[in-house]
Amino acid sequence: MLLAAARRVREAGYRRIDACVPFPVEGLTEALGFRRTWIPLLVLAGALSGAAGAYFMQWYAMGVWYPLNVGGRPLNSWPMFIPITFELAVLVGGLTAALGMLALNRLPMPYHPLFNVPRFARATQDRFFLAIDSRDARFERGGTAELLRGLGAAEVSEVAR
After folding, report:
1. pLDDT at position 77, please?
2. How far apart are CA 74 and CA 70, in angstroms?
3. Same domain flag for 92 and 56
4. Measured between alpha carbons, how far is 105 from 52 in angstroms, rounded to an integer?
5. Alpha carbon distance, N-terminus to C-terminus of the chain
6. Is residue 161 part of a domain?
7. H/E element, 143
8. Tens digits of residue pLDDT in 27-75
9. Domain range spanning residue 7?
10. pLDDT at residue 152 above 80?
């Protein structure tokens, strides 16, 4: 029922909608209109910048700051730079993934207006919630409430910001 309601709300032109459910619902993200995340591109950019920074740091240290010729080898021999370059790529990529996920999900979020709805305390147990943000271009107090009631909502609550 929630999945059908989410699809109908989306078809009605609402874009700022979200759902809170106690377990994963197949197809709900598509019904809500979620787009692909930017996290993979952020991680790629972070990993490449970490690798480039590590390689440049080693190359500059060995070739310019402290040139030390050991055994007639070249001053900036790239094979010896690979382990640190790889390690920093993984480190910066991982940090970018964690921080990017937090930033894009607007976390940590210690307060959300839905927390004030008494029935929302059961959202992680056995209740399903479909929320439409009042900042949505199609939002209209009476019309949106009637749409939700028409879709079979057990209760429609207006949540103060």
Report:
1. 84
2. 8
3. yes
4. 28
5. 27
6. no
7. helix 141-150
8. 999 999 999 999 999 999 999 999 999 999 999 999 899 988 878 888 8
9. 2-36+114-150
10. yes
Q: Which structure tokens are listed for 12?
A: 């009605």
What does the pLDDT average to over 130-136?
Answer: 93
**Strand 129-132 and strand 17-20: pairing?**
antiparallel
Residue at token pair 């240290």 = 61
Residues 51 and 88 in one domain: yes
Q: Is the Cβ–Cβ distance between 21 and 2 less than 8 Å?
A: yes
| Residues 59, 81 contacting (CB under 8 angstroms) | yes
Residues 148/140, Cβ–Cβ less than 8 Å:
no
Q: What does the block give as tokens for 41? A: 């591109």
Q: How far is CA 147 from the centre of its chain?
A: 29
- The whole-number pLDDT of residue 138 equals 94
Neighbours of 102 (CB within 10 A): 11
In this prediction, residue 160 carries a pLDDT of 80
In the numeric block, the tokens 């070249």 are attached to 74
Q: What is the band of 161 on the pLDDT scale with cuts at 50, 70, 90?
A: confident
**37: number of Cβ within 10 Å:** 12
Return the axis-axis angle of helices 141-150 and 2-11, rounded to nearest 10°.
Answer: 140
Q: Cα–Cα distance between 120 and 128 in angstroms, integer?
A: 9
Indicate if 43 and 11 belong to the same structural domain.
no
